[in-house]
């Protein structure tokens, strides 16, 4: 695939840089001044482009970035990003030398990992900056809260390591029921107070993702880790709203072909739609291979500011929509698959419902076959 040529495709993902900037400004105005911002740009900043989002985050005042893989961190370093980068998850041994030499911040959640990192730090005559993740109930990464103080103390005392942070992660922070989040917070606090008793201090204690940032100010500590919010998308229907935030991503395409169906004609693989009367359909050159959900007779796109419902089952590279009730549609008219047109909007939550998933997956799912077009 050659991106120079794919750039001419009549289908693309639009990234509104001006709105991204505005979102960061709004978040900074909302955030207490003593709370630092870590911008989570894993998985290409949820499909928006990691380097773009990272650079805007840093310009706006973020002090930290986070990614999920070594390759993602290397892409940022190669783009000239010198800010601290936290790499989520556990590092296999063969990644430790690169992590240390690139000055990446990694998690060390056991005495064994501390020994491995310290050995590499000694070999490179460098200090390895590390954070400890405390598992307070997500049961994913990190050391269980009851065992955390001993591990934290061992890491703090390991020569060659600089223990800069201690963190935890919520299992559910954006729904109405905050009871488990509050239990996790209490477990994290018990670890922090035990650290206090042992005289261990770190620069960054952090726990809040977007849900925690919006709804649990008591969980802000020294830094918040925001992924979805700067992209202008809320993690749930019930969390706090900040006026002015708006989505950064739209997905657009152009009508490739119009066809007139006669009664009895079927549409698409599997023949899931049959016209009862004359209908006019538009073929859109986007399919599930581009990350559009593989829906059938479900969902819609916007053409001339109106909703055109999907008919039949979507293919890998194409989908069909009914434009019978939209006058004047012509080949190569602009189509909005995600975003606004006229007064209408299709947002990620709506697409997520068609697909039975969450907004996060809808955003990360758009294929890189769709060129990213940045508009400012
Ligand atoms: C992805 C992630 C975040 C960001 O979550 P949002 O809900 O997108 O703000 C924060 N912390 C960790 C550990 C993550 O994996």
Fold and architecture overview:
This protein is of the alpha/beta class and 376 residues long. It folds into two domains: 31-231, TIM Barrel; 249-375, Lyase, Ornithine Decarboxylase, Chain A, domain 1, CATH 2.40.37. It has helices spanning 3-6, 17-30, 42-47, 50-60, 70-78, 96-101, 111-124, 148-156, 179-197, 210-215, 348-355, 359-365; strands at residues 11-16, 36-40, 64-67, 85-87, 105-107, 128-135, 143-144, 161-167, 204-208, 223-226, 249-254, 257-261, 266-267, 273-274, 279-284, 300-303, 306-311, 319-322, 334-341, 344-346, 372-375. Strands 1, 11, 12, 15, 16, 17, 18, 19, 20 and 21 form a ten-stranded mixed beta sheet that branches. It has an eight-stranded parallel β-barrel with strand order 2-3-4-5-6-8-9-10, surrounded by five helices. Strand 13 and strand 14 form a beta hairpin. The longest helix is centred in the middle third of the chain and has 19 residues, at 179-197. The chain is elongated and about 80 Å long. The two termini are 26 Å apart. The structure holds pyridoxal-5'-phosphate (PLP). Residues 40, 42, 88, 169, 209-211, 225-229, 235 line the site of pyridoxal-5'-phosphate.
